[in-house]
Amino acid sequence: MKPKSIVLILLTTIINFNLTVSQSSDFGIYKCKNNTNTNVFKQDITKSLTSLTGHVASHGGFYNSTASTRVTSTALCRGDIGPDECEKCVKTAIPSLLRNCPNHAEAAAWYSDCIVRFSHGEIVGVLDTWTFDKLYNSASVDKGEVSEFSEALSELTVKLTALAANGGSVRKLGFGNVTVVGSGLVRTIYAMMQCTPDLSKEMCRKCLFNASEEIGKCCRGRVAARVFYPNCFLRYSNEHFYNDPPLISSSGEAKSGKKNNTTRTIYVVVPVICGSLGLIVIGVLLYLMKKRRNGSLSKEKTTSFSSLLDEQKQTSMKDAAGMEIATVQNLQYDLKTIEVATNCFSPKNTIGKGGFGLVYKGVLPNGQEVAVKRLSETSGQGVQEFVNEAVLVAKLQHRNLVRLLGFCHESKEKILIYEYVPNKSLDYFLFNSVKHGHLDWAKRWKIIGGVTRGMLYLHEDSRLRIIHRDLKASNILLDQDMNAKISDFGLARIFGVDQTLGNTNKIAGTL
Where do the Gnk2-homologous domain residues begin and end (predicted)? Predict the structure, then answer.
């Protein structure tokens, strides 16, 4: 191909990309519901919507109008934009919404910077899922990166959902980023999730969970996408798109009082300030007491785990743990959380059994499904396996290795928490007369490649050279896309960087 042709193609691509971006930033999406032809009702809608202008930014980016007794309207601005951008978006959306939904009793408009809606019914404090919409970039990551990219995005949205749901009555907003390393490329995913602040914590969590599910259905592997509901939205991109919120003030500017009110103001303010200072002091003391108590508990848990390492007398394990012993605290779950997630280890939640003990399916408070591996008291090698996996797997990051989310060492319980893999293990398909038919040669080749990449990482590419010593079909898990994930590092052993041979004083491996 001639150089001129290459330049022309590149310029055309850049121009088309810029056009796509500029068009998407000015988009307007409208959804209408329930026809009505009553002129009086139309007047109420116009009156209610018009009354939103001038009030949204001054009320922290969210406002519901009470100008009409028959129509309720609300407006939500993105929590990272300024008051001018907020009011501009609302003023643009109102006439467009009236024009696009002229004969309807309920409607919503979604813009890049705001959501405006109205209804003849009650919508304040109500989770509304009657409609949603989505936008996504046509570009995708490479096929080999899709799984890793999607997992990282899922982790990020889980964290941001919790952050937004725990917001206050003025703003429910979560934003952040995560970096994905894979196939020689480093990608950063930026995401923002927001609910209308009139929703309860559970309502906000459910709304954003629905949005995350839609992203998984429509946009797997897409570099950027948005999902909108009447009460919330989710947006992510491989480009930084948000500001550092909050830019919209949560309250209006204080106005100066008149001169004849000066004396009364002093008498009122002084007691209030004194009382407030007293409450602040009490609050600080309570916070410090709680922090001290939590610190003691964390120290106790960390010490407990360290003593468990000492009991095993494994120098290599202790050295590996010592490299990042501070991260142990970040991976620990309390027992109550695990009991709630598994319904107190209900037999109905059992999904597997091995030499280590039973494996349960659980659901964490943020809605994430997990596999919970519980050490059996009758297991002879259980403690050693627990230490191995807690130390090793937490340090291993690869798409073909099962991901350890955390562990629990409390009240004689030793529990490992993993990502949930829906398609079980390879032996479930290989040795089942019905299921083995699902494994065509393309899937088998894909699984072989995944196992090979995982083993190569363990032997050559990870910062710790790991010998698995228990690789078998039951320890090869399969995710929803039939990607192989090596699991069960209970018998694994660390080798030196240049070590290629080793001796063992006992037989390793299980059937």
Answer: 23-123, 131-241
